[in-house]
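Last lecture ended with a question: if I hand you only a sequence, what can you say about the shape of the protein? Today we answer it with a concrete record. The protein is Ubiquitin-like protease family profile domain-containing protein. Below, first the input exactly as provided, then the predicted structure, then a couple of comments.
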Amino acid sequence: MDEDQHANSGPSNKSPNQVPQKQKKKPRGPTKKEAQCAQQPGSLDCGYYVMRFMYDIIMNHGNSQDLTKDFSRTLPYSPEEINEVKDFWADYFMNNVEFLA
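The predicted structure:
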C-alpha cells in the first residue's frame, strides 16, 4: 500500500450518508448604533458635556424612535448651554447634600 492509500484507509469522521448538522446560531444581542454628539473643544468640560447630553436625551428626545437621526449635532455646546447644566447641578447639590460642619 503506498502512502496515499494508507492515509485514506483509516477510519473517517465523515460518512457519505451522514447529514451535516446545522450549526447553532449565537443569540443576537442589541445592535450597536453610533449617534453623534456635541464635541467639546477642550478637555476640562467633559463631565458637563456628558450631563448636557443626558439632559438633552431626557428632555428633548424621551419618545424618540431613532436617536441616531435625532442626534446629529457635532458642534460644541454654547457657553449658555453648559452654564445651564452647571446651574442645575449646583442647585441640586446645594439643596440635597448635607454639609458636615
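Comments.
1. The radius of gyration is 30 Å.
2. The chain has a mean pLDDT of 78.
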